[in-house]
Every structure is written in C-alpha cells, then in structure tokens.
Amino acid sequence: MIGPRTILFALVTLVLGWLAGALLNYLADVLPQTRSFSSATCPSCGTKRTVLDFLLMRSCRSCQTGRSRRAWIVQLAALIAVPAIGILPPPALGFWIALVVFLYLGVVFIIDVEHRAILHEVSLAGAILAIPFGLWLNGWVKTLIGFAVGFGVMLAIYYFGILFNRWMSKARGQEIDEVALGFGDVNLSGILGIALGWPRIIVCLFSAIVLGGLLSGLYILVMILRKRYQAFTAIPYAPFLIIAAVVLLYMA
C-alpha cells in the first residue's frame, strides 16, 4: 500500500523536477547570449519571455514560435532525473546538495552540446560551488592535489592539441580552426578535480577519455556511412567528463 508520505514525496520531487527543467532551459537560453541572468527572448522575433512562459513551456506570444526540441528534452529529462535523485541520491551528498551539483553540471552539459563552449562565467560559479564541497568531501590536501592534477593534465592535452593542429595545418596546406579541446574543458577538469579530489580525478579523466574515444569513433563511423563525415569536426567533451564525474559521485 502506498502511504501519504510516499505520495507527497513523489509530488514534491515531480514539482522540483519541472522547476529544475525550467531553470535549466532559462540558463541555457540566456547565458550563451548575455553571460548574465538577463531576460530571455524569443529567438525568432526577440519578444521577452516571462517566467510563466518557461514554466508552462508556452510558445512565443508574438510570433507563436514553439519551444525548441532541446527545451522539451531538458524539461522531460529533469522531470525524470530529479525524482530519481530523490529516490537514490549519491551516498556522500544527500538529495539537496546533489540537486545543486547536478543542476550546475546540467547547465554545463547543455551549453557545451548546443554551443561547443564552456563559459568562463559558468566556470567561475562552478569553482565557487566546488571549493566548499571539495573541502568537506575530501579535505584540503586531496582537494588541492585533485585541482592541480585535473587542471594540469587537461592543460597539457590542450596545448598538445594546439601543436597538433598547427602541424596538421602545415601538412595539409590549409588552416584548421577546430580544436579537439577548448580551454573551458581545462577549467571544468580543474573544477571536477576540486570536487572529486585525489585520486578520483584521475579515474574521472581516464574514464572520460575512454568514453569520449568510443562515442567519437561511433559518431565518425555513422557519419562515414551516411557520407556526411568531415575531418576535424569538433565534438563537445564536457559531457564525457560530466558522465564520468556523476558515476564517481555515486561511488563515493
């Protein structure tokens, strides 16, 4: 028999899930454009969107442009994810801390997939969030080493990517603008190093590299079969780091 507390828990987490989806969609709409908590606007006509527009997933009141596919995917994913976190939160975090952490990671994930960028303002907010979290979870020594390793390893890979691009540009006789790894990925790795600490950050980086290689290879294969493959196409890397970090948070 389902008791009243179970029903209340389900209702609260569902409401929180819908609110989380609306917040994620708002942040994913405005941050890449203004880098601040500004008013969201319709991409077609520029009409301002209200809070209710996000909460009710309403079309634009002026031009009737509907919400994007990404907006619906995020809204439904949050509606599923938040109750799931409530039922099974990461052991070391609990529900509320996990909700804040996953909201931040969700913003980074969505913006990187959609815009191939990790904003410096978002990275700064992540560092502010991660420092007390990392110190509480790991202690200052493991937190400091985690940051140094996470940031340092990815910084080395970042510069290796730049050198590789220069070498390939000379070999091909044409400039290659796409980079395999952006500096935002370096910042994110440092933030995850703070949150996960040493030695879990090494496991996170290794897992992300393996996962990224496998899925990138699958993507290239699909594009080749569809005859749409283009060499040096940029693939967002933050999602792989975030997936690895979430798994490790559940293993804490």
Fold topology:
Elements (H helix, E strand, L loop, with lengths): L3 H31 L16 H5 L13 H19 L7 H21 L4 H19 L1 H33 L10 H14 L3 H26 L12 H13 L2
Helix pairs in contact: 1-3, 1-4, 3-4, 4-9, 5-6, 5-7, 6-7, 6-8, 7-8, 7-9, 8-9
**Total individual domains:** 2
Helical residues, percent: over 70%
What is the global morphology? globular
Mean pLDDT: 87
Radius of gyration (Å):
20 Å
> How many β strands by DSSP?
0
Measured by DSSP, the beta-strand proportion falls in under 5%
The stretches of 5 or more residues where confidence is low (pLDDT under 50) are none
* Biggest beta-sheet profile: none
Structural class: mainly alpha
Span between N and C termini? 33 Å
Number of helices, counting only DSSP H or I runs of 4 residues or more: 9
Helix-strand sequence: HHHHHHHHH
Q: Could you characterize what this model shows?
A:
It is globular, with a radius of gyration of 20 Å. The chain has helices at residues 4-34, 51-55, 69-87, 95-115, 120-138, 140-172, 183-196, 200-225, 238-250. It is an all-alpha fold. It contains nine helices and no strands. The protein has two domains: 1-88, no CATH class; 117-252, no CATH class. 72% of the residues lie in helices and 0% in strands.
